[in-house]
Amino acid sequence: MIEIENVTHTYGHGEQSRTVLRDVSVRISEDRVGVIGANGSGKSTFVRLLNGLILPTQGRVRVDGLDTAREGRKVRQRVGFCFTDPDAQIVMPTVAEDVAFGLRRRGLSATEIQQRVRQALQQHGLADHADHPAHLLSGGQKQLLALSAVLVTEPSLLVMDEPTTLLDLRNARDVAERVAGLPQQVVLVTHHLDLLADYDRVLVFDDTRLVFDGTPADSVAFYRKLMS
Ligand SMILES: Nc1ncnc2c1ncn2[C@@H]1O[C@H](COP(=O)(O)OP(=O)(O)OP(=O)(O)O)[C@@H](O)[C@H]1O
Questions:
Q1: Between 2 and which of 20, 28, 185, 217 could a Cys-Cys bridge form, CB atoms 3.0 to 4.6 Å apart?
Q2: Domains of the chain, each with CATH number or no CATH
Q3: Residues enclosing ligand 1, CB less than 6 A?
Q4: Sheet of 58-63: strands edge to edge?
């Protein structure tokens, strides 16, 4: 369960400050939740609140009862985050090392780590690339690597901020289909509205506010009208 209570977020201080989210309150228990809205409307800021990457200036964010401001480490163990650009997430030289990186400090044996890494790579079509240099993968493969590196840690919530924006249509569909089949709760920010057709709920942001909250069809219709 995600609970957002009266959250306002302001970047910077004084004259340079900029409020980008205003008084957002929402409780999310559905498995598949989309987040849409114009550029700069506050979507990324909203989802970054969910794993404590950003702390609210006012209000409170809780994930499974854990306050992100007080229990950031525990929250981050539960909440996996995928960015638009997988290069921002790839930290190790080879594919297998990168997936293993997220498992450090989890108290697992080397054998367990190897097993989990092998399984994650198999699940996401990277089994043949385990020893390849990560930076030489294609864009689509890099996003699958980023996804594998997050999922290997077995989060209960997966937050994705426009993970298909840099991908061609085939790779975008591939990522979306993999995400659809996951056991995790998923919160997906996207401008690819068709990816949300089967989602349980879609939130629409506009100019710092959560302005609509409904089914994919209703939310997309609202958003299209907003943009016309
Ligand atoms: N670190 C920051 N410091 C100051 N302003 C920021 C920072 N990050 C984002 N902003 C501003 O906050 C506003 C909301 O940004 P945010 O990235 O949350 O929007 P978004 O809806 O995700 O946009 P997009 O669809 O373009 O990714 C934007 O005007 C942006 O310039």
A1: 28
A2: 2-227 (3.40.50.300)
A3: 11-12, 18, 20, 37, 39-45
A4: 18-28, 2-11, 58-63, 66-67
